[in-house]
Amino acid sequence: MITLTSAELNTWIAALLWPLTRILGLIAVAPVFGNTSVPVQVKIGIGVMLTLIVAPTLPALPTVDPMSFPGLLILVQQLIIGLGMGFAMRIIFAGVEMAGAITGMTMGLSFASFFDPQSQGQSNFISQFMSLLATLAFLAVNGHLLLLSVLAHSFSTFPISASPMGGQIFKQIADWGGIIFSAGVQLSLPMVAALLITNIALGILTRAAPQLNLFGIGFPITLTIGFVVIGLALPYLATPLERLFQQGIEMAGQITMPAVKVP
């Protein structure tokens, strides 16, 4: 007859519950995995499958009852780590969406807003198009697999322990948030520059021929120039997007670096 002690049962629960919490935290907010169109059952299934793969390779876990207060603190710590890693990658997609928003507003499409199920807010269709393009590029370069690889490696660089992680992770994410604006401006710069030249030309034309209806001819010209420049710039977006994805994956890995103590 097989008998199990409470200590052995708690060890088995902790060996699955703590890594599952970190993995589900990343899946909840990471691009592609955290999309609202992905059913919750699929997300939980992916998390459980990854946990069963990662659990046998984990370092020694702290001997703490997972239902005790210290065990719950470890659970919250793992959730914060997973959310931080997924959010570091999500910030890259926010920068891409901002590039689309800047382009759309410059083209005069600020009124053409739709409900975005990903961000649960309003965004113009240029922003949604850029988001879909970034998602396809992310899958094309196997970014989702690289992100899962960084997640699995994080259990070695930042093992599950009862020691506090400090506030460094929050500062890193806050500093990393600045890339939303830099990436958004850099990706939208060709379109904004072309539309700025177009608006200057329309202004000069209006001064030369005041009888022209600027609102009648300006909007179609601005839209046409904007779509043409977007079409010309699309083939060249692969390189900056791949670089941004690489930076996001590196930042997701750096979040777990504070656990490495430098002598």
Automatic annotation (TrEMBL):
Q: How does it sit in the membrane?
A: Multi-pass membrane protein
Please provide, in alphabetical order, the Gene Ontology terms of the cellular component aspect for this entry: bacterial-type flagellum basal body; plasma membrane
Q: Which UniProt keywords apply?
A: Bacterial flagellum, Cell membrane, Cell projection, Cilium, Flagellum, Membrane, Transmembrane, Transmembrane helix
Ligase as a keyword of this entry, yes or no, is no
The membrane spanning regions, by residue number, are: 12-34, 40-61, 73-93, 129-156, 176-202, 214-238
Which GO BP terms sit in this record? bacterial-type flagellum assembly; protein targeting
Pfam families assigned to the protein according to its UniProt record, in alphabetical order: Bac_export_1 (PF01311)
Q: Where found in the cell?
A: Cell membrane; Bacterial flagellum basal body
Q: Which PANTHER family does the annotation name?
A: FLAGELLAR BIOSYNTHETIC PROTEIN FLIR
According to its UniProt entry, the function of this protein is described as: Role in flagellar biosynthesis.
Q: Which family does it belong to?
A: Belongs to the FliR/MopE/SpaR family.
> Which named protein is this?
Flagellar biosynthetic protein FliR
